[in-house]
Amino acid sequence: MDQVTPISSELLSRFEQGYADRPYLSVMSNAISRTSLDDASFVPSAAAKLRMDFSVVVPTTGITNQKKSGRCWMFMVLNALREQVIRECNLEDFSFSPTYLAFYDKLEKCNLFYENILHYADQDLDDRETWTLLGKPLPDGGQWDMVASLIRKYGVVPSWVMPENVHSTGTAQYMPILSRKLRKDALELRQLARAGRDTAARRTEMLQEDYNALCILYGQPPRTFDFAYTDKDKTYHCDTGLTPKTFFEKYVHYDFSAYVPVISSPIHEMNRTYCQPGMGDVVEENMFWLNLSQEEMETLTVRQLQAGEPVCFSCDCHPDRDRDHGYWDPDCFQYGQVLGGLDLEMDKAARLSSRESTMNHCMLFCGVNLDETGKPDRWKIENSWGDASGQKGYFIGSEKWFKAYVYQTVIRKDLLSPAQRALLDQEPLPMKLWDPLA
Q1: Mind giving me the DSSP string for 118-167?
Q2: Are 147 and 153 in contact (CB under 8 A)?
Q3: The predicted structure's pLDDT at residue 62
Q4: How far apart are the first and last CA of the chain?
Q5: Most buried among 76, 212, 213, 332, by the most CB within 10 A?
Q6: Other CB atoms closer than 10 Å to residue 53's CB: what's the count?
């Protein structure tokens, strides 16, 4: 920088006087010295409007708990799919194994990382694509498309076939270690590729090492298993010798190709399809999105709930949240007012383009309340943070929060209008690796 603007003593004196001229600021400082900012900013009258009563409700079985892992995207889809097994087999309850999918997710992400590193092997380490890849070689998070890819390739198993353990539920313990290993592998693969040498054999050895480590952490995934259960009528059943894929085909009647992830992003061209090369987990599949207006995405979400089906969605879960009581609503918190009258208002485009907001959590819409004009005013959400958070695990999102922070919903294609379905035939535009919705 040719010229800098330091904070001078004169400027600091002005700041001090400006604070002194507003005595209510010191009163506010005293008031929140023993009260958290969330509690001091909370608006009870706004929260009172968010009642756990809805005009449209899709029944769900209960709450799951991803614990200290970034597997919300798996839980979101598995929670939707388990309702089909419960109906099919006349069960009181049922759950899939997220550990099983997490194993293959991590293995596939290792392979995708090697694929991307070799694709950009001619780049310098500080070129943006390579720099982005090395920044997070093994992400824990994901999206609906990635669950679809994993299940299509590997199937699913009941929770007792590959149960949770301390590592599947607490990924922060070992993710940095595996990431270190992948970065080391990346440097070696780049060196081989830039020297014109074959990388295939060494890459396979690296993947074997990754597989071994994941087996130690998660356990080795089963090839076959028996599905034994007792239904609501106290009748015992046992289906033997199932593979994870045949189990899915026989007991889970869900066609992933019948759905499309719909996004609403004002920083991307509307009425366009997008893909994300180099993202996801399974290298042979690509992520696909349809970008529609906020109003269209919301109308489709209501339509699917009215059809009796929950809606998988992705959002920014951090702003305007009361985790203990189960609220998401910008009107419930007055952070700017408490902090001296700060103007914190940003529209959706500004939040995305400035990295103020991004997709970081996945859940299920299982209800909506429509007002007297037929417009939604609050949404019922099934979360995966256990039943001790929210209202026995369920949350309420206001309509204002939906508009501000819900970025993706997964919609049945037959609910799209003819004009919207026609958009699916477009050649998708690729997103950057560092896109805020990636």
Answers
A1: HHTTTS-TTSHHHHHHHHSSS-S---HHHHHHHHHHH---BTTTS---TT
A2: no
A3: 87
A4: 32
A5: 76
A6: 11
Cα 272 from Cα 299, distance rounded (Å): 18
Rounded to an integer, what distance in angstroms lies between the CA atom of residue 29 and that of residue 419? 55
Residue 116 annotated in active site: no
Q: Which two tokens stand for residue 273?
A: 């399809």
pLDDT digits (tens, 9 = 90+) for 191-238: 999 999 999 999 999 999 999 999 999 999 999 999 999 999 999 999
The pLDDT of residue 277 is above 90: no
Tokens encoding 121: 């092997």
| Domains recognised in the chain with CATH numbers | 56-430 (3.90.70.10)
Contact of 141 with 73, CB cutoff 8 Å: yes
Q: Which residue, among 330, 324, 322, has the nearest Cα to 351 in the 3D structure?
A: 330
- What's at 327, amino acid-wise? Y
Q: What's the pLDDT tens digit per position in 81-113?
A: 999 999 999 999 999 999 999 999 999 999 999
User: 158: how many CB neighbours lie within 10 A of its CB?
Assistant: 23
Summarize the chain as % helix, strand, coil (round to 5): 40, 20, 40
pLDDT digits (tens, 9 = 90+) for 140-166: 999 999 999 999 999 999 999 999 999
Catalytic residue status for 325:
no
In the 8-state DSSP scheme, what is residue 50? -
- The dihedral formed by the CA atoms of 282, 177, 208 and 218, expressed in degrees to the nearest 10: -80
Q: Which residues contact 309 (CB under 8 A, 6 or more apart)?
A: 58, 412
Q: Which residues contact 303 (CB under 8 A, 6 or more apart)?
A: 415
Residue 332 has pLDDT above 70, yes or no: yes
The amino acid at residue 78 is L
Q: Is 383 annotated as catalytic?
A: yes
DSSP state for residue 431 in the 8-state scheme: P
Strand partners, 92: none
pLDDT at 1: 64
Q: Which residues pair with 290 in a beta bridge?
A: 262, 273
Identify the active-site residue in 268, 361, 362, 369: 361
Distance CA 48, CA 56 (A): 20
Chain-centroid distance, C-alpha 262: 14
Buried residues in 192-220 as b, exposed as e (16+ CB within 10 A): bbeeeeebeeebeebeeebeebbeebbbe
Tell the residue number behind the tokens 């046992």, with chain if given: 238
